[in-house]
Amino acid sequence: MSSREVVLARVRRALADVPREERPDEVPVARDYRRVHGSRTAEETVELLAENLADYRALVHRSTAGALPGLIGRLLAERGARTLLVPPGLDASWVAASDITRVEDRASATARELDAVDSVLTGCAVAIAETGTLVLDGGPDQGRRRITLVPDHHLCVVRVPEQVVDSVPQALPRLAPDRPLTWISGPSATSDIELDRVEGVHGPRTLEVILLTGA
């Protein structure tokens, strides 16, 4: 018996007591699974997010609203960035302290043109503490999905604590399934059979996250 036949036989056995006329939406599915592991304050949730982001080799910074433009300008200057891709709905004050050349998020931009950009700056839709994950949904301050996948350096601003949740089950109700969701857990990386890690293969080589308070 082939592996395919084994799998199909198991499926048939599992469905043996299901009436043929029954439809999936007619049977309620229990959703009483645990939505969060443990109990945390908002501050503890933000700390957990910072720890897990760092575990994924993201660079984590903290800032107040007033200090944000200066921090962004300094981080870009330290990288020697000369061009910055900015989504159309991003708060213009965020880059007021930098004289870097700003690149618009254009639908006509090619992959080669995006690859030539030094850095991209975005907000996010939600951040998940337990997994150290940032979720982008193509909102006005995030732009098209590809602008965060092609450039080598991504700066992402997370408003804390309002954009931070504990778990994936808490994040999902905040997200619209018909939007282009991008889930980011650290900079892009892969490893070969020898476990040699290579970064920047499927997305930005460097991810920097700014946890913004008092926005």
TrEMBL record:
UniProt-listed SUPFAM superfamilies: NagB/RpiA/CoA transferase-like
Domain (LUD) ranges: 103-212
Pfam families: LUD_dom
Gene3D superfamilies in UniProt: NagB/RpiA/CoA transferase-like (3.40.50.10420)
InterPro entries cross-referenced by the UniProt entry: FTHF_cligase-like_sf, LUD_dom, NagB/RpiA_transferase-like
Protein name: LUD domain-containing protein
